[in-house]
Amino acid sequence: MIFNLLKGGYSKVRTALSKTRSALGSRVRSLLGRTIDEDVLEELEEIFYEADLGVQTSIDLVERVRKHFEKQKGLSAEEALEDIRSYLVSLLSRGPSALGSAAEGQKPSVILVVGANGNGKTTTIAKLAKRLVGEGKKVLLVAGDTFRAAAVEQLELWAKRLDVDIVRGSMNSDPSAVAFDALQSAVSKGHDVVIIDTAGRLHTKTPLMQELNKIKRTCQKVVADSPHETLLVLDTSIGQN
Hints:
The structure is a single chain. This protein starts with a helix and ends in an 8-residue tail after the last strand. The chain has helices at about 1-15, 20-30, 40-50, 55-70, 75-90, 120-135, 150-160, 175-190, 205-220, and strands at about 110-115, 140-145, 165-170, 195-200, 230-235. It has 9 helices and 5 strands, in the order αααααβαβαβαβαβ. Helix 2 packs antiparallel against helix 3 (about 40-50), helix 2 (about 20-30) crosses helix 5 and helix 6 (about 120-135) packs parallel to helix 7 (about 150-160). A 5-stranded parallel beta sheet has the order 3-2-4-1-5, sandwiched between helices. The chain is α/β, with parallel strands linked by helices. The longest helix has 17 residues, at about 55-70. The chain has 2 domains: about 1-90, Four Helix Bundle (Hemerythrin (Met), subunit A), CATH 1.20.120; about 110-240, P-loop containing nucleotide triphosphate hydrolases (Rossmann fold, 3-Layer(aba) Sandwich).
């Protein structure tokens, strides 16, 4: 029943995106059927941008097309399009990389979680904590978003559900101080992994970005080379800025 539900949902999404998929393929095919010059490549890059493939991926794809046509003058539009498809599939097929961790024999490993408001940082932390607990790790959560009461309450709820420890500070307290206290506690109590939640912020807000640097410096006062991993949580539906 669940499989049929998921299958039906996928079918609806695929149908809804069919026009977009067809239009993108047609535009690329039409361009590649012309004589390949810088104007065509520029138009191709614009199409990739409009498809929200991101800056670096768009540039890489255009370079692949340029090199292919330089090597094979008689390359057809379909062959070039197939190469583009293969490249995109290879990007999406890459396996997950291992989380950064403290050097062997040292602990705790420290994970700093950052991102904009409402993108799912706290939920991601809960999922990550559950995975680590399942691997037999002793996990400590840190409520570093001291500016929003709901954020602390949400993390406390997840800590209770997952049966893991949590450190929180008072409202509007310095998140660096909360992180410092948490890491000292983790060292003394033998936690394997510490996951630090942070307040949502945009990269354009300089004071808030400086606050992240302060948290990082503070972590290093207690645990060398920490944080060992910084996870940026994003919602892909809002674009690639």
